[in-house]
Amino acid sequence: MADINVNEILEKMLNAAKGVLQNHWEDAKPFAEQELKSLAENLKLISQLKLEGKINEEQAKYYVDIQKSSVRIVLLTIEGLGIIAVESAINAALDVIKTTVNKAIGWSII
Amino acid sequence: MKKNQLTKNFRFATVLMMAMMLIQSCTSIRLISDYDEITDKTVTQVQEKVSGYFVTLERTVGTEEGKYKNFIETFDKIKVDLNTLEVRAAAFDKNRIVQEQVKELNNMITKLEKLHTLGFATYAQIKPLRQPFNTAFTAIIKLQLALKRGEKVKNDNN
């Protein structure tokens, strides 16, 4: 069985994530890089456990499932932070025109 | 003629009301659920229990004390907290992200328990597990803190 090269799989994962995140990549980069690096390192540890005969296939799948769920949670946070940023931007924009619009219309509608 | 005028007026009033409702509904846009203190505290409770689990397991791995039967109560307590989180997350509008995070966390605990029932013999088997849990909790808490800040901004504006 071939050994896992952490740098090689990390680069592949980063390129894939960058392609999907596109415009959000710069915001997500520090968080994503750190977490994907940990994922790559842990995948190597799991492969070592297999090589040393310390885990079977069933156990390996549970280990990988835990890693995958952890990454999903991180990606969900990145998505949530993006939504909060958009929400704040819209509300800030409305707040800026609040006085002008309310005064012009004569009602306090914003 | 009079009927036409009335219809026109009615249409105008309807459009005006709809426009006002639209504008009013936009006064404070909400795209994601508000901060929930109980969710935040319960996530921290689960994190503390999982952290305690790993500390004990790392100390006792490979011994009688480190066997699954001695951790059943800990898993039960974690599951109770997760159920609270699940119910809580489902009760709020626009809370898909937190709901999915809780679902993934639940999956992590289920798989951890399965691994423990199969047995841990050495520290090397635990090493790849602690970090993903720390990462998951950090990410969930990070989102909760961001929601909290959003809540503060909303309150400041009101």
SS-derived structural category of chain A: mainly alpha
Structure annotation, total helices of chain B: 5
Mean pLDDT of chain A equals 89
Tell me the strand percentage band of chain A. under 5%
**What quaternary form is this?**
heterodimer
Biggest beta-sheet profile of chain A: none
**Largest sheet entry of chain B:** none
Report the average pLDDT across residues of chain B: 87
Structural class of chain B: mainly alpha
Runs of chain B with pLDDT <50, length 5+? none
Radius of gyration of chain A: 22 Å
Radius of gyration of chain B: 25 Å
The span between the termini of chain B is: 48 Å
Which term fits the overall shape of chain A? elongated
Helical residue percent band of chain A: over 70%
Q: Poorly predicted ranges of chain A (pLDDT <50, ≥5 residues)?
A: none
Count of extended strands of chain B:
0
Largest interface: A-B, 39 and 45 residues
How would you portray this structure in words?
The complex is a heterodimer of chains A (110) and B (158). Chain A is elongated, with a radius of gyration of 22 Å. The mean pLDDT of chain A is 89. In chain A, α1 packs antiparallel against α2 and α2 packs antiparallel against α3. Helix content of chain A is 84%, strand content 0%. Chain A is mainly alpha-helical and 110 residues long. In chain B, α2 runs antiparallel to α3 and α2 runs antiparallel to α5. Chains A and B meet through α2 and α3 of A and α1, α4 and α5 of B.
Features:
heterodimer; A: 110 residues; mainly alpha; 0% strand; B: 158 residues; 5 helices
How would you concisely characterize the structure shown here?
The complex is a heterodimer of chains A (110) and B (158). Chain A has 110 residues and is mostly helical.
Task: Furnish the topology, listing elements before pairings.
The complex is a heterodimer of chains A (110) and B (158).
Chain A: H1 6-21, H2 25-51, H3 57-105
Helix pairs in contact in A: 1-2, 2-3
Chain B: H1 2-25, H2 37-60, H3 72-91, H4 96-118, H5 127-157
Helix pairs in contact in B: 2-3, 2-5, 3-4, 4-5
